[in-house]
From TrEMBL:
Keywords: DNA-binding, Transcription, Transcription regulation. This is TetR/AcrR family transcriptional regulator. It comes from the Bacteria. It holds the Pfam family TetR_C_7. Residues 9-69 form the HTH tetR-type domain. The keyword Heme does not apply. Residues 32-51 bind DNA. One of its GO terms (molecular function) is DNA-binding transcription factor activity. The keyword Transcription regulation applies.
């Protein structure tokens, strides 16, 4: 039973990778399940066995994007460590993810597909917000420990994400600029930390 299962997983992965390529080159509206099947080297029936519709297939691609965003949640708040060191670790993980070409490809697909569909855009923004909750939780815990000033944690987290994405996400997504090199990443991180801590640290 192991071999068929592995074959099924390989076919599913081939379909997903082909869909990513097709959505990226042609956009959501133009891409067809027939084209995805041809690119993946499987039958159209096989595609539908894994994904009942193009929307379901796209949703699975978006799910991969959302899962990528949880990287920042791997660093919990620590009462014994300097705030700057903890935040730096969070931001380094964020920038590492934002520099990943696969992540950027998925983000481009998601953004392009939602431009002409307010419903998709609203769903994407809502799910993005849920996945970025990790930093807000960290801020809330630092506030409870008396180390950060009172502020809406979600608002402060969004500010921090904005400081990072201005340099390490939107230029790459909208203008095709290369991902930041390590020295540039460090500069963006330290500058964001300066601004955030100057505003909110007690």
């Amino acid at each position: 039973m192991t071999v068929p299962q592995r074959l099924t997983e390989r076919k599913r992965e081939a379909i997903l990778q082909s869909a990513i390529a097709e959505f990226r080159s042609s956009g959501f509206e133009i891409t067809s399940m027939d084209r995805i099947a041809a690119t993946a080297g499987v039958s159209k029936r096989t595609v539908y066995n894994h994904f009942p519709s193009k929307e379901a297939l796209f949703a699975e691609i978006l799910n991969r994007l959302w899962n990528s965003i949880t990287a920042e949640q791997l660093t919990p708040y620590s009462p014994d460590q300097p705030l700057r060191d903890q935040l730096r670790t969070l931001l380094q993980a964020k920038l590492q993810m934002l520099a990943d070409e696969n992540f950027l490809d998925l983000a481009r697909i998601a953004i392009a597909a939602t431009i002409h569909s307010p419903e998709r855009a609203q769903d994407m923004v809502a799910r993005m917000g849920e996945r970025e909750e990790g930093l807000a939780v960290w801020i809330r815990m630092a506030q409870a420990a008396g180390r950060l000033k009172p502020v809406d944690p979600a608002f402060a987290a969004q500010q921090m994400h904005g400081l990072i994405k201005t340099f390490a996400f939107w230029p790459q997504i909208s203008m095709g600029q290369p991902s930041l090199a390590s020295p540039e990443q460090a500069q963006v991180i330290e500058s964001a930390l300066d601004m955030f801590l100057a505003c909110y640290q007690r």
